């Protein structure tokens, strides 16, 4: 059977591009098309080379993992090892789903006309078969994500939390925000965003009334005893959001947060990011829990 390298390259370019785009969709990560194409080109080049290699199982796995790591980095540009591992796991799960979907499509369509040799699909109309099999699987994943999202109502994401600062407690409602990845840049401690008004009574008024000045480094309006009590607890938390790429919040270290739903989760290393506006129009919640805190 004649094998055309440009066809192998094109097949893998199409499949890798859809896989990477779907991974970004599942992770809710915005990725640039040029990064996806560049990562897919790397994977396609390896696929062409791989066709001629005769590797043992161990070396084969190491090479595939190495190439997929490079592809993930090019496409998503991770900052931390945890992000890398999360992206790789999601990429492989997505690959398994697509692989199974395409395989079923091939078996259903024309199982006798296509064969697999050295990891490369060969036969007539392979690009068309792979493209439509991948497209159908992609549509299935999108519909599945929408179905799962519709099952999660806002009520399911709202929790009761009890905040303890200076041995004083306050109870409020918080919503799980899967887009909140805020952490203290120095310690890596997760940040819970709270409306600063609810902290009146458990945080000194001098702190709450001078937040902007404290962020700017001006603490002249704060008495010495308050400085001594709070200076070790204060943090500056940088953040990016829609419409504000380089914002900062004043953070204060809490002694403890209890998250209550079906069970009680105790988090003793957490920082409160003080927010000077309302988080919800009808006061359904007054805090945003960080992604992964549960």
Question: What do these coordinates show?
Answer:
This protein is an alpha+beta fold and 294 residues long. It has 2 domains: 5-151; 155-289, Beta Barrel (Cathepsin D, subunit A, domain 1), CATH 2.40.70. 46% of the residues lie in helices and 23% in strands. It has 8 helices and 11 strands. It has helices at residues 5-27, 33-52, 57-76, 81-110, 126-151, 205-208, 211-215, 224-230; strands spanning 114-117, 120-123, 158-165, 168-176, 191-195, 234-241, 244-254, 256-260, 264-267, 270-275, 287-289. Strands 6-7-10-5-11-4-3-8-9 form a 9-stranded mixed sheet. The chain has a two-stranded antiparallel ribbon with strand order 1-2. The N and C termini lie far apart (54 Å). 25% of the residues are buried. The mean pLDDT is 81.
SSE arrangement, N to C: HHHHEEHEEEHHHEEEEEE
Q: Please tally the β strands and state the result.
A: 11
Q: In total, how many domains does the architecture comprise?
A: 2
Q: Given the structure, what is the number of helices?
A: 8
Which bin fits the share of residues in helices?
Answer: 40-55%
Strand content: 15-25%
Question: In angstroms, what separates the terminal alpha carbons?
Answer: 54 Å
Low-confidence stretches: none
Give the helix/strand class: alpha+beta
Radius of gyration: 25 Å
Widest beta sheet: strand line-up: 6-7-10-5-11-4-3-8-9
